[in-house]
Hints:
Chain A is α/β, with parallel strands linked by helices. Chain A folds into 4 domains: 2-120, NAD(P)-binding Rossmann-like Domain (Rossmann fold, 3-Layer(aba) Sandwich), CATH 3.40.50; 127-221, Alpha-Beta Plaits (2-Layer Sandwich), CATH 3.30.70; 231-345, Rossmann fold, CATH 3.40.50; 366-450, Alpha-Beta Plaits, CATH 3.30.70. Chain A has 15 helices and 22 strands. A 6-stranded parallel sheet of chain A has the order 3-2-1-4-5-6, sandwiched between helices. In chain A, strand 2, helix 2 (33-42) and strand 3 form a beta-alpha-beta unit. In chain A, helix 7 (122-135) packs parallel to helix 10. By secondary structure, chain B is mainly α. Chain B contains 22 helices and 2 strands. Chain B has helices at residues 3-20, 22-31, 36-54, 65-83, 85-89, 96-107, 123-138, 140-145, 156-162, 175-199, 204-215, 232-245, 249-256, 260-264, 267-288, 295-311, 326-338, 351-369, 386-410, 417-428, 449-463, 467-473; strands at residues 378-379, 382-383. In chain B, strand 1 (378-379) and strand 2 (382-383) form a beta hairpin. The A-B interface holds A 2, 20-21, 25-27, 33, 39-46, 62 and B 150-156, 170, 172-177, 257, 385. Chain B: InterPro entries: Cat_transpt, TrkH.
Amino acid sequence: MQIVIIGCGKVGKTLVAQLVAENHNITVIDTNPEVVEDITELYDVLGIVGNGTSNQILQSADIEHTDVLIAVTDRDEVNLLCCVIAKQKSACHTIARVRNPIYSAERHFLRHELQLSLTINPEQEAAREIARLLQFPNAVEIDSFAQDRIDMLRFRIMKNSPLEGKALRDLSPILGGNILVCMAGTENGSVVIPDGNYVVKVGDTLTIIAMPGEAEKFFNRIGITTNRAKNTIIIGGGGISYYLTEFLLKMGTEVKIIEQNKARCEELNELFPSAVIDCGDGSSQELLNAEHLETMDSLVACTGIDEVNAILSLYARKKVRKKVVTKLNHVEFDDVIDSLDLDSVVNPRKLTAQKILQYIRAMNNSMGSNVETLYRLMNGKVEALAFIIQKASPVTGVRLADLRTKQNTLIAGIIRGGRLIIPGGQDTIEVGDSVIVVTTNLGFVDISDILD
Amino acid sequence: MNYSMIRFILAWVLKVEGVLMLLPCIISLIYRDPEGKVYLLLALAAMLVGGLISARRPKNMELYPKDGFVAVGLSWVLLSAYGALPFVFTGEIPSYVDAFFEIVSGFTTTGSSILSDVEALSHTTLLWRSFSHWVGGMGVLVFILMMIPSQNGSHMNLMKAESPGPEVSKFVPKVRNTARILYRLYLIMTVVQIVLLLAAGMYWFDALCISFGTAGTGGFGILNSSCGSYTPAQQWIITVFMIAFGVNFSFYYLLKIRRPKDAFKMEEVRYYIIIILLAIGVIAWNISGSGMYHGVEETVRASAFQVGSIITTTGFSTTDFDMWPTLSKTILVGLMVIGACAGSTGGGIKVSRFVICLKSVKQAIYAIAHPRAVRKIRMDGHPVPENIMRSLYGYMVAYFAIFAFSVLAVSVDNFSFETNFTAVAATLNNIGPGLAQVGPTQNFGGFSIFSKLVLSFDMLAGRLELFPLLMIFYPKTWKNC
Lengths: 452, 481
């Protein structure tokens, strides 16, 4: 597809990296010549220096023949204007990053009136993700398929877990029939798609696939209390905290926010009378001690500085009862961050990029590929894809036991009529199903790619 | 430096050269030339060796800017070194240095020859010579870029190093697709010329070779008289196409995507056309008094053909312009240095560099009159970025330094100053013939081996715009730091 990306900040760069890997034709527009030069050195894209709201610049990016325009500059108004102007000359889909809560609250109106295909609010996305994690404190990461009806949860095996030292084939009484272990990451960073002989070790992160209710029962069975966090302390009162508080209060979680800026504290208090707002430096140890972290279920570190967040989390990890979530803005140094014992990490920019990518992949569906959802997991070593089976193929109607699939490829789930079927050898894939595939062979575009 | 990637690229160059050598093989079948066997064996050997070495793709496909330059420089040396072999093995040019000079002259689209009797060559070799122009014109690495898939932007470094002009940009987001567009335009224009020449009654083999020479702005003729014995209509067709291939290819791309307004706004193309028209006018007036030509048409045709041939650095000739009055000869030498447009197949300094340099002179004068004024040099309405200006000045200094040292080195052979000066001008700018001893009816065969190597270096340096070749000889390139 022809894609134009306006704004080459961190989100822009993450998008370019992913979209180039998926073989799209990309033109980037930014007002800063150095940024444009950098990105064209790194990736095979066309760079244009200029303001994306200018019709002339959009013309030189060949906007008439563009399929998608993505505006991710740091200013909402610019993003919206880019989309509106592009729409005048082109039938392209438009995606705008909109952060201001005022616009965000009116996003349905904006989307309709300005004919936007998608608006995305990184802070809200991050808040939603954090809220989800606080509901499921045991999972490190949660991804969902089939319109949130199927969850993929990653969790770490702690000492004394009943799973420790057992081979997967012996786990069926614990797992039950509705859950499948589809991926295992060892402590040193390698990833395997496990078979029945895989022995679970302490420090592994296992990924299971399940319907949301089933996952909860499973965690109960293996002795991990899945009770969601009942109270939360949020360090930093920025945009994410605002949205997160909104979500959490709705869910009935008690919220305490520590924010340094007095004016902001007052503002937050006006917005959320039921939340406790403390004015003070959340990164000071005395203040945290005074808050009695050991009585808290969870802590969310989302100040504006990554380093502070990381250190806060490492400190809180030992005290807080259930869950620590760290917000990080940097998208690089994945390996280093993984090696820290941070519990869950939420990256608003990555989430934004992922959401946009999903939209673009869905667009690609109508243009041939039938990937419905795609997640890159474990630092991009593994892909989990959901395929929609639109027509009969060599894969359909054959018992799975008789399919010769590629190595390290697992059919992890079949979704039929909204229900998840954990596939066994006797099951078949039928037209109309969604099929979830987990694989280390990257770049599948069609379900028949799973065949050897 | 990423040595395994450079090895991979060099292997690809060898492989592609092998495939290209199959074209002369086909011609040898038609003419039943015994030389065909040599070409076939060399082609197979190149494909085999290149294929084996490039079979395994390097893990790290990234090319740092330095690697790009070195890869391009080495590729062209390899291309020439191997391309010279058929001349030697067929016995048609027994000395390897002569053969090397001849094929470098071919690939760099120069068209200078060491041969005194071209007509004695077999058809197979004539075609290989002319075909080397066509390959060298657009560039062999641009050709390879069409085939190597890339995700990172670093492969653009290859294109930057090989394509002429101060600023190389892509037409479309992917390098690969840009390379395809370039070669498609190039191929279409070449085919159109062949068809037109056939329609004007030219023999098919001549039409093929002359079109290859025109497209690459090369200039190897296949007759001793170069283009002098072709009919006026044929000469006009060649003139128009020479000038057309000297135009920046962005111009044609803009026409193709139906943005003619932007195409004709290109400042470089405008200056290029103005310079050509002026030169044709002045020379036609100047030579009309010499009594060499009869009638206005013949005078203008001689003037236009020579001007088109020299400014685009093709180097065909229809007349012995060494006999022209001094004013005309001086204008021609001036055109040699200016050269064609950036982003074309032509050589020389390039019109755009020349225009920017003149503008910076104007700027300097303006700055004396208004010491505090802030004013940027503009091209096509946009300010020229600082880094482009810097590399342009570097280029100009390097150009004249190489020019001066080459004239000095060639002087050892004790020819006249005019000969030495124009010999260097003709090779460094990839033109072909110079004046006096290396004039259109003469050749470079009289130079010593040392001079031939110096001039071969000049040709490669000129085609690759100096720096890729200088990089190879810069000792620190080969140190890891």
